[in-house]
Design brief:
A seven-stranded parallel sheet has the order 3-2-1-4-5-6-10, with helices on both faces. The relative contact order is 0.13. The protein is built from twelve helices and twelve strands. It is globular. The longest helix has 21 residues, at 86-106. Helix 3 (56-65) runs parallel beside helix 5, helix 5 (86-106) runs parallel beside helix 6 (141-160) and helix 9 (248-258) crosses helix 12. The chain folds into two domains: 2-169 and 214-240, NAD(P)-binding Rossmann-like Domain (Rossmann fold, 3-Layer(aba) Sandwich), CATH 3.40.50.720; 172-211 and 243-281 and 296-314, UDP-galactose 4-epimerase, domain 1 (Alpha-Beta Complex). The protein has helices at 14-23, 40-44, 56-65, 79-84, 86-106, 141-160, 186-197, 215-227, 248-258, 271-276, 285-291, 299-314; strands at 2-9, 27-34, 48-50, 70-73, 111-117, 163-169, 171-173, 199-202, 210-214, 239-240, 244-246, 263-266. It is 43% helix and 18% strand. The protein is of the alpha/beta class.
Length: 316
Amino acid sequence: MHSDTILVTGAGGQLGTELVLALRKIYKTVIASDLKDGTPELKEGGDFVRLDVLYKNGLADFVKRFNINQIYHLAAILSATGEKNPEFAWRVNMKGLRNVLDVCAENGVKKLFFPSTIAVFGPTTPKVNTPQYTVMEPNTIYGISKQAGERWCDWYFQKRGLDVRSLRYPGLISYKTKAGGGTTDYAVDIFFEAAEKKKYECFLKHDTVLPMMYMPDAIRGTIEMMETPAEKITVRSGYNFAGCSFAPQDVAAEIKKIIPDFSISYKPDFRQSIAESWPQSIDDAVAQKDWGWKPEFDLSKMTKDMLANVSAIAHV
């Protein structure tokens, strides 16, 4: 096992929960942290601490005391939640990141991971096969804060020599943790509702295509990118990172192959306009070239795996 000591902030979220478990199979010491109490899963496999990334001195003391070598900074307010409370989202997403960047640069932390998002793109971005380098005019507080975060990360690499790395995540789909206030949450909720009630009311229109990724691919890709030698990493803002693209009607059709009497209805809400400002598909050729990224799950394979696992959970 690797000897680096890793700190994961925001570990209680959808991505953090599974990332911590995966990292603990590779690294001897992985400390999970969050403001809210940790799940039994996070606490049983290693250390869990309450940590507020907005409190820089406390974060710095912790990093020094435990000789933290790497930080995965996942603490953030997501898109739909951020639109309801923009001031709070900006503070958590921006000030939290700046604190982490400073603490890393000032205390010799070797490597930092910052999760970016497809929300850094906006209505003026090319929607199909969105390139790595393109127009970025995000129109959500989440996207604006993450785009600014990408620029800060690149600045700290250029000016402070910090080995900071980032991925622009699409919508993430997982059966282990419920989604946490994002515009792509339907693609998680639909599986739980299909298994439990055989029907689902979707908050996006039937033909709203968005980039998505199954969590096993996201976790594997994140760790592969972080394990890549620094000289191969050419992007210090955020790598385009793709899995598969689909609309609610597509996933509903796949579910019906397994649950024939499943039905879906549509009642678009404020998240529809957010979704329409985002890309439909992502060109991640740079990630493929730099560190050999390749997803394993398409929509069909993911649907089978999700329903099998969600059904197993429902019958426990």
